[in-house]
Amino acid sequence: MSTATQPSIRSPHSTQRLTPVREISRTSRGVTGTVAGMGRYESTLERDMMELIRFDRTVRQFTPQPVTINYRSAEGAERSYTPDGLIHYHHVRPHEPSILYEVKFRSDFRKEWKIYLPKFRAAKAFCRERGWVFRVFTEVDIRTVYLTNVRFLWPYLSRKVDPALQDHVLTVLWDLGEADPDFLLHALSSLPNGRGHLIPVLWHMVATGDIGCDLDQKLTMASRIWPMKEARP
Predict the structure, then answer these.
(1) Among the listed residues 52, 32, 48, 43, the one whose alpha carbon sits nearest the alpha carbon of residue 107
(2) Domain 3-143 annotated CATH 3.40.1350.10
(3) Helix 44-55 vs helix 145-157: angle between axes, to the nearest 10 degrees?
(4) What residue ranges do the domains of the chain occupy?
(5) What pTM value is reported for the model?
(6) Each residue of 34-76: pLDDT tens digit?
């Protein structure tokens, strides 16, 4: 049976982050750093994954380097493995199981697959005991159009916006039903300066989910958008 050291709570956030069980060290790729509010990473791919998790409103809790799993090799030798992260989700429907994950470049996995496979098998067994899922994410999963859109929208997420202005945008968008940013902005203001003032408001509302769009497609002024909430009376 797999065992693991238990992490401790570090600080409560809207997305709670727990303390990693091992220190982040400089890697052979020579890239380490910190994603604000998320923790330290050992590769640019880990950083990109953290940025996706940070943007995901369904995430309740995230832990970098969350557990150390002890297992035995095929030869009976004791081994240990610490995955890159653990994601717990809010209770939503359909239910999303917690994900224990590893981030790997495809080239690294191809080169060292004999080393990684026993670790990943141990992680899968560890997850089955807890009702979790173990996944390996590569650059194919992470470095997508969605990531590009997340990076574009992230600075707008914390922007302070007048609630009355947001309600006005929603009211006009509800009247239109569906539009694109360019058409909506022209419907909101006939003046170029007015439309320029409203652009950050629009992207803030897309980032918060008040305005819906397909983030798997590149965001442009011609993207299809629609209202996701009612304006306040």
Answers:
(1) 43
(2) yes
(3) 60
(4) 3-143, 146-227
(5) 0.84
(6) 998 899 999 999 999 999 999 999 999 999 999 999 999 888 8
